[in-house]
Write a structure and sequence with these properties.
By secondary structure, the protein is an alpha+beta fold. The protein has one domain (about 5-175): Pnp Oxidase, Chain A. Helices cover about 25% and strands about 35% of the residues. Strands 1, 2, 3, 4, 5, 6 and 7 form a seven-stranded antiparallel β-sheet that branches. The two termini are about 30 Å apart.
Length: about 180
């Protein structure tokens, strides 16, 4: 793991910073990702992560995922609602980790609202299949790391850190409470 990622996240005191700006930064980073890792905790205390595709037009404080009602993630959320959603794009050096509470949603109107034709690849019965449900994750806290992405900015970052000792010179990290 690179030096830039092994340092602790700089926590932001939301009473002294623009919360709206931090949420916008988080939403901007999240919009760059196409796949998330949803981590759940089962009744026996075992964590399990699985790739999921976020649904919807943008991050508004919640993530939505489509799955089937008999999926292990659904069972885990029903026994322990605390979940984590993480995103990684190593090439651009963008990372997000969001904690929250998972909820199972079977409302057909919500499924219709969030459905896209691409989901038919995963659900043979389509949006009308009674086994299709949604997982909504209401985010309570998120950490992000937005570091230098291309080779030139990475080299500039390493040179700046080497000469100044300032690890935060070209990267942005923070925590957002929602």
């Amino acid at each position: 793991m690179s030096e830039t990622l092994s340092r602790p996240t700089r926590h932001i005191d939301m009473t002294h910073h623009d919360t709206g700006a931090q949420r916008e930064k988080l939403a901007e980073l999240i919009s760059k990702f196409r796949t998330a890792m949803l981590t759940t905790l089962d009744a026996a205390g075992h964590m399990s992560s699985r790739p999921m595709t976020p649904l919807g037009d943008g991050f508004d404080g919640a993530f939505w995922f489509a799955t089937e009602i008999d999926n292990a993630a659904v069972q885990a959320i029903q026994s322990q609602a605390s979940v984590n959603v993480s995103f990684m794009h190593e090439g651009d050096n963008h990372y997000v980790s969001a904690s929250g509470r998972g909820h199972i949603v079977t409302d057909r109107a919500e499924i219709e609202r969030l459905w896209s034709p691409a989901l038919s690849v995963f659900f043979k019965g389509g949006k009308d299949d009674p086994r299709v449900c949604l997982i909504r994750v209401d985010v309570t806290e998120a950490d992000y790391w937005d570091g230098p992405g291309n080779l030139l900015t990475k080299l500039a970052f390493f040179a700046t850190v080497a000469t100044t000792g300032n690890h935060e010179a070209l990267s942005d990290t923070g925590s957002v409470k929602l």
